[in-house]
Model the fold of this input.
Amino acid sequence: MNFDFQQYPYPSQRTTVIANRGMVATSQPLAAQAGLDILKKGGNAIDAAIATAATLTVVEPTSNGIGSDAFALVWTKGELHGLNGSGPAPKSISIEAIKERGQEQMPTHGFIPVTVPGAPSAWAELSKRFGKLPLKEVLQPAIDYAENGYPLTPILGKYWGYAYKRYKQILTDDEFQHWFETFAPSGRAPKVGEIWKSAGHGATLREIAETNGESFYRGELAEKIDAFSKKYNGFLTKEDLAAYKAEWVQPIKVNYRGYDVWEIPPNGQGLVALLALNITSGFEFPAKDTLDTYHKQIEAMKLAYTDGKAYITDPKDMPITVEELLSEEYGQSRRNEIGDEAIDPNPYQPPRGGTVYLATADDEGNMVSFIQSNYMGFGSGLVVPGTGISLQNRGHDFSLNPEQPNALKPGKKTYHTIIPGFLTKGNEAVGPFGVMGGYMQPQGHMQVVMNTIDFHLNPQAALDAPRWQWVGDKKVQVEHSFPNHIAQALVRKGHQIEVTVDTGGFGRGQIIWRDPETGVLMGGTESRTDGSIAAW
Done:
C-alpha cells in the first residue's frame, strides 16, 4: 500500500502514528502500553495482543471481561489464521425451557442469555500456537492493574456511570449484587481519575495464567461458575465449560479493488461487511463527500444487513452458504436494487438448488486483529462471586421462533456481533483493522475500508471521518460533524436522517498498516474514546 495518503481535514486532536519496531492500538492507553511492554520483553504481536486483551478486562470493564467472547485474525509467516472464541448455548437450554419461565423473547440480563465464555480459551489457544512468551508472563500486566489499581479515564468513567445508574434501577435481584460489590464497591460508580482495583479479578487472571486457561473450563474457576449458576437456576454447567475450546477457522474474504478484505466466517457478522463491499465494488466513487457516494453506501449496507440478519447463525443452521452470498451473482442482484430513492429492503431470496478491539504488529511481520466483548456494556450483569468474572449475555441474540435460522438450540452458537478485520494485497499483509460497537461494526468496517482504498485517507483520517449508521427501515443516524448539505440531500432521496450529538454509538476503531517494502507501521486510533497507540 502506498503510504502517501491524503490528509483529509476532519477535526481531530490525533495524528497518524508511524514506527517500525512494534505497535499496539486499542481503546485504552494503559492496555496499549501493556502490549508494548510485552513486545519489548521479547514477545511477538500475538503475545502483545493477549496481554492487551487481558489488560482491557481490567481497565475497560464497561466493554469486556474475563467472561467475554473473542475473535482473532492472525497474520504470521505469510498466512492468515482465524480464531473463533465464541461459546455455544448450554446443553440444557431450549426454547421450551425459556418459555416455561414466562419469557417470550431472550432476556438481556441474568443467567438465561449467558453462553459459554470463550475469551480465556482464545488467549490460551493463541499463546499455545503462536506465542513466544509463557502465558504467565503475558498476563502479568493485567494482573498488576487488577491487584494494584489504576485511575479511570474520561470515556471509561462516563460509561461506567451510565451503567451504574441503569443497573441500580433494573438489577435489583440478589444474583446481581456481586456486580455492585465488584464495580461499585463504594456504593457508587468510581469517578474519572479515581483508583479502582479488584483483587478477585487479579486472582482469577493469575489462575488462568498458571493453568493456561484450564482452570476456567475444567478446574476451580469452572466449579465456582457452576455453583453460581446452580444457585440461581442457570443453564450453564461445568460440563458445558469442560466441553469447550476456541475453534480455529478459515477466514472469509472479498476482493475489493485489488485488495482482499478478510473477516471471520459465521457465526460472526463480518459477512455483512463483505456483502456490502461486494455490492459497492460494482460502482465507481470518484469523491468521498458526495450525495451519490453516501446514498449508495447506505443502500448497499441496508441490503447486506438485511441478509445478514436473515441468514447468519451457527454455520450448520444457515440456509444459504457463505460462497453463495459472496458470489458476483449475489452482488449484482443486490446492486440492481439500488436506485435513486431510499428503499425498504427485503431479505435476498437464494436461488433454489446461505465490544473492545485491538490491533498489534511486531518487527517480525506478525500482525493481529483481535476483538473481545461482553455485550451491551457489562453483559449479563452477573459477576461470579469473588472472581471478578463478569459474564457475557451473547444468548440475547437467539430467536425463540423455531422457524428462524438463529433459533435457540442446545449447544448452538448464536449470531455474533464482534468482528475483527484484516486487509491484504497479493500475498502481502496490509494490516489489521476493526471498529467495535454492536451492529455498527460491519458498517464501520465498510466505511474504514472505503475511506482507505477509494478515498486514500491515512489511518487516522479514515477513523476520524464522520460516520453514518443505518438503524432500520429508512432510518440513518449521522454524526454531528456529517456534512449538513449532504444530510439534507439524503432526506430528499427518502432517507430519514437523524443527527446524533453523542458519538458513542458510532463505534470505536483501530488501524495498523504496514509498508511491505520497509516494514514501517502506520497506525490510527479512535478519537471517539480514550484510544491510544503505543509504538517503538
